[in-house]
Amino acid sequence: MASASDQILSLEVPVLAAQTAAFAVSAFLGAPVLFIVFQAAIACAVYFNYKAAISKTDLPDFYYYISVIFSLPFICFQMIKKTVKLISDALDEESEKSAIKEDIAKHIKADWDSYVELKTFKYAHSSLASNAVPIVDLLSGDDIEIKRKSVIILHKLKTVKSIALLKKALSDSNVEIKFMAASALLNIENDFKERIKNLEEEIARAEEDNYPMLHELRYNLAAVISKYLMSGLLDNIGQKKLSELMHYQLNSAIAENKNYIEAQALLAGEYFKKAMYKEALEIVENALKNPALVGSSEDVKISLVTLLCEIHYACGDLEKLGRACASVKNYLSAEVLKKRPELIDFEKSVKYFAESRSGSTKGGTANG
């Protein structure tokens, strides 16, 4: 017949298995107190079931065994707590990373970007009404990990606004962040140069082969150059050289296809940025009269009419601005504003000038 000590020893495997299961469940539920309760129940069960059968010589071993069962929860409590914290921190980190990306992306959405892929012109900096959302400056503060992630995401976005934030990071107090930002900017600049070089080579081949869609390639090159110019990564000499190339490609594209509205919109926008309002206005007005405008995208139409407003505003011609704003209202539907929230402030200005124009017309009629 087995002794009491043998009976106790025989419980080691099942008790250990039960303890392991309790530990796993408690860690999964994030409730260490359940493990303590379970351990106390095991200790009590062993004590009351076997104490009477234990000889006096085996009592020290018996009490030692009971004490181990009791003390194990306090050892494992910290282990479970640390496990739960690690899991929680990992989830928080992933959530934080997702939030960072969302915030940056939300900010970048309000910025003008290259339309090589979308084939749509989105006008840049509005002087009529500010269309920028509040800047989410994640590069400020002392959290180095957030700064690292911000630089990585900004590098991937490669938009004009993200480049501006990366340039700001060059003055960061942390050497690592400075290096990361400098590396990201160098990579973006090299990417611009590579894309321009590839497109130039593609255009050269297309010219030799009399490619019928050559104007599309010219437009793509001009759009990339436009974004590169806006990035602020070029010196004055580089800007002048590329600006001339961009204008040449756009004029060539329009000459090859008189109905190329996207190219006309981009060229008009470039003239506007140089304060060449007469040239910009002529292109915009011709584009708006062109029957090909009907087949153009919604973004192109909106861009042309908003640019028309900007030109009249810059020239100080409020009467023409009022008429232009009245026509813009037809394009700024609730659906459009939802897709392009950067136009919300512009729409408010449009309403103001359109209503002012309407009011002056009514007043003039009444006085007549």
How would you describe this protein?
The chain has 15 helices and no strands. It is mainly α and 368 residues long. The protein has three domains: 4-105, no CATH class; 140-257, no CATH class; 260-368, Serine Threonine Protein Phosphatase 5, Tetratricopeptide repeat (Alpha Horseshoe). α5 runs parallel beside α7 (175-208), α6 packs antiparallel against α7 and α9 runs antiparallel to α10. It starts with a helix and ends with a helix.
Provide a short characterization of the protein structure:
By secondary structure, the protein is mostly helical.
> Could you tell me the strand content as a percent range?
under 5%
Q: How many strands appear in the DSSP assignment? A: 0
Gap between N and C termini, in Å? Answer: 123 Å
For the largest beta-sheet, the strand count, sense and barrel status come to: none
- Mean pLDDT level: 76
Fraction of helical residues = over 70%
Helix segment tally: 15
Q: Indicate how many domains the architecture comprises.
A: 3
| Shape summary | elongated
- The radius of gyration over CA amounts to 35 Å
Q: Stretches where pLDDT falls below 50 for ≥5 residues?
A: 107-136, 361-368
Summing up helix and strand content along with how strands pair, one would put the structural category as mainly alpha
